[in-house]
Amino acid sequence: MAQTVIKAENISKYYQLGVVNAGSLKLELQSRFDQLFRRGAIEIEDSSTHIWALKDINFEVSEGEVVGFVGKNGAGKSTLLKIISRVTMPTTGSVKGKGRIASLLEVGTGFQPELTGRENIFLNGHILGMTTAEIRRCFDEIIAFSGIERFIDTPVKRYSSGMYVRLAFAVAAHLNPEILIIDEALAVGDDEFQKKCVAKIKEIATSHGKTVVIVSHNMAAVKELCNRAIYLEHGRIIGTGSADDIVSMYLRKEKFELLVQEFPDPSHAPGNGQLRIKKVELAPVFSNSHGVLDATTALHFSVEIWLQEQFLEGFVTGIHIFNMEGQCVCDLSSSIQHLSTGPVRVDCVIPANFLKPDCYYISIDFIRGTAEKVFSFDVCLTFYVQDTIVKTPWNTHWNGQVRPSFPVTVKSQVKDQYYVTV
Amino acid sequence: MKDEHWSWELSSRQSWFKLDLAELAGYKDLLFSFVRRELKSGYHQTAMGAFWIVLQPLLTTMFYLLVFGNIVKISTDNISPVLFYMSGIIIWSFFSDCLSGAMYSFIKNAHIFNKVYFPRLLVPFSMVITHAIRFGIQFLLFVLLFLYYGDAKGINLSSLLWLPLLIIQIAALGLGIGLIVSTLMVKYRDMDQIMQFTLRLFMFLTPVVYPASLIPQQYEVLYWLNPVTPVIETFRSILFSHAPVEAVYLLIGAANTVMIVAIGLLMFKRREITAMDTI
């Protein structure tokens, strides 16, 4: 049984809004005066000037676990991360931890414009909790990762913003603490470098034995990286469980609908050296006049890709439709095609009267030959099938994973000889 | 599991005072990184560079020599005017630099404090070390001038042992006041304005450009309660073989310093993390 390395008990965080001025001095003196003589409990309540950013948060993180926090903007994720990082104090409750902790809530914390890149590597490294010896050990790696060898002895104020974040992320990526706290929004820079950042975060998060707490808006990343996820809403935990369950819960709750993704520039599109995604789309073919995506709507699914390499031994596209429990509702696959480089289009129609009302997301796999997975585009589209508007005389909940309208016929067989009454 | 050992804890209920020296020691690399940052960025893109460290007291001494020595003609207690002004200037600026260095701890580092944890005391400590290094260089300059203008043979060598103590006291005093002000400034930036002109005026209540012997008798006690006064006067009495400062003033000064540092540390530790919500 792995030991608990972070334990948060009853954390609440209360923020006072508004500006500081002469009025606030008066208020403060007044409340100090009251405290001095009444010694009463401080009364705090939700109002326009006060908010509870977090309320009664309890959780534990075990050694070696990768835990993700999900939730909409303003749900309190960042505040919670700050409390775990010990940069802000909870109003009530406590956080306890074991082992050296490093937080990456931002890249380049403490960079000094006047100092050179080399000097800033050390300053920033020290601020993030590395020792001089540790920084020396991975100094060359940091420079190589940042790709700015030539400018390492130039003051960073002369850097372009791209160079600046490259260097900053490079330092952060070489931290080696026991517990790492990451805000995924820190993947920065141009698309190419962002991908490098995300890959590096993955590498750190999945490296053996490291405990990682991560905040992310990217559900695919949460599913991929985390063992466990915690869902925050309005400062409270509304769900804890496996990453798959929580991502499903999140997507269903927020009713995300992402019916098209288009990437006009191949060099910045998802993919790799073998293929790049150009466009994924799910076009509803409405059968009703209200334009509501319900169970009677057929869905025309299409993917356009650029093949960068030849697929002479065969190319297969697999389409997986998941429901929000994370169960694969169906797994579709194309026939094997032998293709050379260039644009390719994949089409598939999910017929009407097949999916039951629920939230779904689609992941696509591209396979070389019959087994080698070349690229997966996970959680690339999400959609929501509403309850059929057509009124049925009864209210019913459909059992089963799907709701195909295979004809079920009922016939009166009065004339059948076997049933002829004597 | 009752015997769980946590290496850190952050709780809404803080103990009143816990100065974790072992933790501070673990961050010594960061401490010196901050010192280096201050030293380097202070003189970046200046033609004179670090030479300003000695140029500043030299120019100020020349200016005081002209204004207070030759125009206003204030007595320097038979001390060579160059050494008199220089000694006052370097000690006073060490004090006020430590103070204003510590005073901006939160304001100037808010962007870092908001993102990363480390013991916040490292920042004011690093300011004191930075200014101690600058003071050391200025003191060397003073020694050179002393060998030229002063009477090195007249010094009682054993009394020189008091000098480091005086320097430590003045640094501690600046740090202590700076820590107190830093916590107040978090919420009320008024403190910045207040301190800027207070420091400027306070210099004239301290024997920097005139000797303490000029103070009329009825104000003497009050005057000597200023904890900077006995330090500067003792410094001069040792080097210029003057009558020693009354021990009671030195003791009061030292006691005040200890108290101010204790209050400063207490207030700073109390606010070091919560400060970020109000800044």
**Biggest pleated sheet of chain A:** 6 strands, mixed
* Total of DSSP H or I helical runs spanning 4+ residues of chain A: 9
| Spatial sequence of strands, sheet with the most strands of chain A | 5-6-7-3-8-9
Number of strands of chain A: 18
Question: Which percent range fits the helix content of chain B?
Answer: 55-70%
Q: Would you give the CATH topology of the largest domain in chain A?
A: Rossmann fold
Approximate strand percentage of chain B: under 5%
Greatest chain-chain interface? Answer: A-B, 46 and 36 residues
The parts of chain A where pLDDT drops under 50 for at least 5 residues are none
Mean pLDDT rating of chain B: 89
Please name the CATH architecture of the largest domain in chain A.
Answer: 3-Layer(aba) Sandwich
- Cα-to-Cα separation, first versus last residue of chain B: 39 Å
Describe the protein:
The complex is a heterodimer of chains A (422) and B (279). Chain A is an alpha+beta fold and 422 residues long. Chain A folds into two domains: 4-20 and 43-252, P-loop containing nucleotide triphosphate hydrolases (Rossmann fold); 260-385, abc- transporter (atp binding component) like domain (Coagulation Factor XIII, Chain A, domain 1). Helices cover 23% and strands 34% of the residues of chain A. Chain A has nine helices and 18 strands. Chain A has helices spanning 22-38, 77-84, 117-127, 132-137, 139-146, 161-173, 191-206, 219-225, 243-254; strands at residues 4-16, 50-62, 66-70, 92-97, 101-104, 179-183, 211-215, 228-233, 236-242, 260-262, 275-285, 298-307, 311-323, 328-333, 337-339, 342-350, 358-368, 372-385. In chain A, the strands form four sheets. Chain A has a six-stranded mixed sheet with strand order 5-6-7-3-8-9, with helices on both faces. In chain A, strands 13, 14, 15, 17 and 18 form a five-stranded antiparallel sheet that branches. In chain A, strands 10-11-12-16 form a four-stranded antiparallel sheet, with no helix packed on it. In chain A, α5 (139-146) packs antiparallel against α6. Chain A is globular, with a radius of gyration of 28 Å. The N and C termini of chain A lie far apart (74 Å). The model of chain A has no long low-confidence stretch (mean pLDDT 82). Chain B has 279 residues and is mainly alpha-helical. Chain B has one domain. Helix content of chain B is 66%, strand content 1%. Chain B contains twelve helices and one strand. Chain B has helices at residues 21-26, 28-42, 52-71, 81-103, 105-113, 122-149, 162-185, 190-202, 220-224, 228-239, 247-271, 275-278; one strand spanning 8-11. In chain B, α3 crosses α4, α7 (162-185) runs antiparallel to α10 and α7 runs parallel beside α11. The A-B interface holds A 4, 7, 15-16, 20, 24-25, 28, 82-83, 85-101, 103, 105-106, 109-110, 112, 114-115, 119, 122-123, 126-132, 155 and B 4-13, 29-30, 33-34, 36-37, 40-41, 44-45, 109, 111-118, 187-188, 273-274, 276-278.
